[in-house]
């Protein structure tokens, strides 16, 4: 099988299990094959971006998810230059199907048979070299937004909005998972093949530009929501409901206090103050009738024959029954 493939081959292997890595190396124990080990998907994604690998083998124990950097990058950029084979144990048949949905080209179950792994890898490699890669989804839509991955443009109400390569890749990652939060770590790994600590500021700038260019503020029925410790989410929104809610809150804020004095002692006490507050906000002269004058005597200045008096106006509601005015 190796003879049909010419030249030196490089296989990228992502696993934290040394025993599995050694087993894979034994499967391809040939001088023309080099196996390179990576411990996490960000490092693997960065290496795939910088170098050419003929096959990618991923340990199922590291986690198989379409938002993982190595899978998300293939989806965002349409980067399928090499077959991806997942190796390991799966809980059930649904788990295997999810691996294929995430982007795996083949699956080898544990316990791993060295001959089976070698045959499946070379068959997948030969398929990639002899025929074009299987067509992937080239468009995504949500509300008035339509993304064309082949052209790298977004249509908003049939109006073309052009984005940079990375802006479009972020948009594709978010729109293809509409309604789900995509973390900063996932975006950093998929788009930059790096960690959020390194590209954090750059990521925020791209999100800001994306939000501005596509007007993802809800005005078109779609908004880009940010939640701390969760990430970013594209979602449909009902702008009419939000406007009505804001109007209701504003009305409540402006509404005068509506209390019936007959309800309770607290209500009887609060009623004058509510009226006073309403008049105060409106600046009505009638509020004077609800105010009592309170005169306080300040300490007389030393050596002075007369005392200084100050007049302080307070709501009548604050003066309880039986309170005397000091004169």
Automatic annotation (TrEMBL):
It is found in: Cytoplasm. GO terms for molecular function: phosphorelay response regulator activity; transcription cis-regulatory region binding. Pfam families: Trans_reg_C. Residues 137-236 bind DNA. Coiled coil: none annotated. One of its GO terms (cellular component) is cytosol. The modification 4-aspartylphosphate is found at residue 59. InterPro entries: CheY-like_superfamily, OmpR/PhoB-type_DNA-bd, Sig_transdc_resp-reg_C-effctor, Sig_transdc_resp-reg_receiver, WalR-like, WH-like_DNA-bd_sf. Residues 10-125 form the Response regulatory domain. CDD domains: trans_reg_C (cd00383). Residues 137-236 form the OmpR/PhoB-type domain. One of its GO terms (biological process) is regulation of DNA-templated transcription. Keywords: Cytoplasm, DNA-binding, Phosphoprotein, Transcription, Transcription regulation, Two-component regulatory system. PANTHER family: REGULATOR OF RPOS (PTHR48111), TRANSCRIPTIONAL REGULATORY PROTEIN QSEB (PTHR48111:SF35). This is DNA-binding response regulator, OmpR family, contains REC and winged-helix (WHTH) domain. It comes from Paraburkholderia phenazinium.
